[in-house]
Design brief:
By secondary structure, the protein is an alpha+beta fold. About 35% of the residues lie in helices and about 25% in strands. It is built from 21 helices and 25 strands. Helix 5 packs antiparallel against helix 7. The protein is globular and about 110 Å long.
């Protein structure tokens, strides 16, 4: 008998039906719902919790275990000086605008993007290039005037498309100019909006009963890695490269979280900090992934006003300089492989490079794994080259050396000019100015020291202070000699490559990619989750309700659970097909 072919694309994706299914089966729900709820906060139910746990378990296998990473669990509450030093207090912010009449707050880039996308969709509808919305959709959007079918001039369409292609690259003042130029208003009220203002996304708090120690809920887990770098390096026997990894909660006070799990204020992150020699960013396993084909959207294409992607192997991307180095390329490939393994549709997955203005203050290069869903392309994983920024700023602030000391195979022998002082005579002659004079001379470049040496050999030399004061030196006070130095230890601050995963976003896009409706009955929605992450691994469905079967069912279920296999028993009176479908 031939196998039945299942047509999963018989019906277009229906977000309303998916959300109804997720709500009915309690995958997740708004937190504090009986009190009216709070935007951007969600609770996971049994299947949602199990799905997230399975994604995390697979992430841990794919990265921590296979890559031999060092796992951490650091605190959420963080003293303010940590984020002041890291730059988050000054720069971890988004641009917001306010409705001039109601005071409603909207994120500026999302407002511009949403309004222009809706105008383009209306243009397509007016040109007959897109199906008109159903009567149900019209009822849902009757408040939203921006969805009207209006044909735009061709030049306007090109202009809107160019703006959207580089939307993430605009500064706050530029977003304000776009709102004025293109008459962008609050779509919910049709009121004008004010000038963009920066809003810091961190939740403030205090530590201790007196409130004298300000703190923040962490917006990322990364700083916990960096502050423990010296201990991690010792644990790894002083060798680089190595990576630390952490899975934990983070918090961001989002301006207007209106996209379900795609934009929340409390979420689970999985972050890796891979420490590498800045002079050697090759990767030992790069050859294993160099032939992996991925879809790329680089910054130059976006800055030209286009969203045209290109497919190429990771090896080609690195060798051509599109991706900066092997280690960054290696993790881009491994991120792709993980997402596809857990069920993300590879045809709806791309890697987009950050443009200059959107780059985080700590990054020198960054690629986002963006997954396409019903709201468009959503960043779900960021892969950034943080260079030596974090370790350097924390070391400078605390005085603690966050460096690698590496024994050299061959000592480095150098020669240089060195100032030799008669300190007793120097102090008697110049008194309070002696220390400053000594510092100025010792910080001189080699060429200046050679000039002083030549002049001292002829009698005297003159050193000028920044304030213009001049001091005469003789060979009785200062001599400059050429010395040989042998360096056996190389000391350097490692660079950091950071893959950062938003697990809630990955979970939601996976649910969208896994949802379909039966060809004969659109109301019968199905979630076809891959076995590796599916909440229920085995369903036990007794064919008979006879009492003598109960002990056998219980025995099978217990054996499966003892073996670590999550199973459910459905012994209700409905048909086998319905029991299978609802579990």
């Amino acid at each position: 008998m031939a196998a039945t072919v299942v047509n999963k694309t018989a019906h277009p994706f229906d977000k309303t039906r998916l959300e109804a299914l997720l709500n009915r089966r309690f995958f997740y729900a708004p937190a504090f719902e009986i009190y009216g709820g709070v935007a951007g906060l969600y609770d996971y139910g049994p299947p949602g919790s199990s799905l997230q746990a399975n994604i995390i378990a697979e992430w841990r296998k794919h990265f921590i275990i296979e890559e031999g990473m060092l796992e951490l669990d650091t605190t959420i509450m963080t003293p303010a000086p940590v984020f002041e030093t890291s730059g988050h207090v000054a720069r971890f912010a988004d641009w917001m605008v306010k409705d001039t009449q109601t005071g409603d707050v909207l994120r500026a880039d999302h407002l511009v993007g949403g309004v222009l996308e809706a105008r383009l969709a209306g243009d397509k509808e007016a040109r007959g290039l897109a199906a008109a919305p159903s009567s149900d959709d019209k009822k849902k959007k009757k408040k939203n005037a921006k969805a009207a079918a209006v044909k735009l001039d061709d030049d306007v369409v090109k202009q809107y498309e160019a703006i959207l292609a580089q939307l993430d690259n605009y500064s706050g003042p530029e977003l304000g100019e776009l709102c004025r130029k293109h008459k962008i208003r609050n779509p919910d009220t049709d009121n004008e909006v004010g000038e963009p203002q920066q809003f810091n996304l961190m939740f403030t708090s205090s530590i201790g009963p007196t409130g004298q120690h300000p703190g923040y809920l962490r917006p990322e887990t990364a700083q916990g890695h960096f502050l423990n770098f010296s201990r991690l390096l010792d644990f790894n026997n002083g060798r680089v490269p190595f990576a630390s990894a952490q899975i934990g909660r983070s918090f961001r006070n989002e301006i207007s979280p209106r996209a379900g799990l795609l934009r929340v204020r409390e979420f689970t992150m999985a972050e890796i900090e891979h420490y590498v020699d800045p002079e050697d960013k090759s990767h030992a396993r790069f050859a294993d992934v160099s032939s992996q084909v991925i879809t790329l959207l680089d910054r130059k294409v976006q800055e030209s006003g286009s969203n045209q992607t290109v497919q190429m192997t990771i090896g080609e991307a690195v060798s051509s300089g599109i991706i900066a180095n092997e280690t960054l390329g290696y993790f881009v490939a491994r991120i792709y492989q993980f997402l596809v393994k857990i069920g993300i549709n590879p045809e709806r997955l791309r890697f987009r490079q950050h443009m200059g203005n959107e780059m985080a203050h700590y990054a020198t290069d960054c690629w986002d794994a963006e997954i396409h869903n019903s709201t468009g392309w959503t960043e779900c994983v960021g892969c950034a080259d943080r260079a030596a920024y974090d370790l350097t700023v924390h070391s400078n602030k605390t005085g603690q050396p966050l460096v690698v000391r590496q024994a050299l195979k061959e000592p480095i022998v150098t020669e240089k000019e060195v100032a030799e002082w008669n300190k007793k005579a120097l102090g008697k002659t110049f008194k309070a100015d002696a220390g400053v004079l000594q510092k100025i001379v010792e910080e001189m470049p080699e060429s200046e020291l050679l000039r002083l040496k030549s002049e001292l050999n002829n009698g005297t030399t003159t050193v000028t202070f920044p304030d213009g004061k001049e001091f005469q030196l003789t060979s009785e006070l200062l001599t400059i000699e050429r010395r040989t130095f042998k360096q056996s230890i190389r000391e350097f601050t490692p660079n950091v490559i950071e893959p950062s995963f938003g697990l809630g976003r990955i979970l939601y896009t996976l649910l969208e990619h896994s949802f379909w409706a039966r060809e004969q009955d659109v109301e019968r929605g199905v979630l076809s989750l891959p076995p590796v992450v599916a909440p229920t691994k085995v369903l036990i469905v007794p064919l008979s309700a006879r009492d003598e079967f109960a002990p056998l069912v219980q025995e099978i279920s217990l054996k499966l659970r003892k073996a670590g296999v999550f199973s459910r028993v459905d012994d209700s009176n409905t048909s086998i097909g319905k029991r299978y479908a609802r579990n």
